[in-house]
Amino acid sequence: MNSSRKDILKKLGVSSALVGIIGTTGAQFLSPIIAKAEIESTVEEVNNINLVTEDFDLTPLYDLIQTGVFSEFAFNESGQLILNISIEEATEQYQLSESQTTLLSDTLEQWRNLTGAQNLSANARLHISGVNIYFTNYDVKMYLSSVIMMGPAAVVAAITAATTLIGTPIAGAIAAVVGSFSAFAICVTVQDALMTGKGFYIGLTGWGTW
């Protein structure tokens, strides 16, 4: 990816920090320029570290999605991401390879280990670095278009799996707060990205299309 595009993404990351102030629904309709102007008057400094999916090999995620196992993801009464069947049953039923079983297990483990950060308040997010993962429109089609038909839990699981594959502390930080967002609203935004030919971003500063 060229430097100019990365610079644009960094600017978008600053803009998206407004999501933490006004809520996730209203922020979807603000232009980056308006959002940037608002946030600059509220926060002295927001350091942005943005990851772009096309910079990483997410082929294992695509392969796992194609097995159909993401249809088994659900949320329990506590809002935790779970599988409706055991890992062993999933491996047998969906004929998963060893590496696919590992990614499935790691995705659940990522969720269990990191969702303790769900209780971060909106204001608290403004005082930490703005960190987002940006899915290009190509990657939205490749990794999220199939799971969106399986429901919100499948979409959240796919995003969590992506952070597992990226494997940096930055990605882990994003996984830690995904659970504090509305899974249904995330699905609506992904659908919007698919329909409008845009990308999708999610992270400590909220989510939206770009």
What report would you give on this structure?
With 210 residues, the chain is α+β, with helices and mostly antiparallel strands. Helices cover 54% and strands 12% of the residues. The chain is built from twelve helices and six strands. The model is unreliable at 2-46 and 116-129 (pLDDT under 50).
Task: Give a brief rundown of this model.
The protein has 210 residues and is of the alpha+beta class.
Please describe the topology of this protein.
Elements: H1 3-16, H2 19-22, H3 24-27, H4 32-40, E1 48-52, H5 59-66, E2 73-75, E3 81-83, H6 87-93, H7 98-114, H8 122-125, E4 130-135, H9 137-144, H10 152-166, H11 169-178, H12 183-196, E5 200-203, E6 206-209
Parallel strand pairs: 1-4
Antiparallel strand pairs: 2-3, 4-5, 5-6
Q: What average pLDDT do the residues reach?
A: 74
> In percent, how helical is the residue content?
40-55%
The poorly predicted ranges are 2-46, 116-129
Q: Tally the helices: what do you get? A: 12
Key phrases:
alpha+beta, two-stranded antiparallel ribbon, 12 helices, 210 residues, 6 strands, disordered N terminus, 4-stranded mixed beta sheet, 12% strand
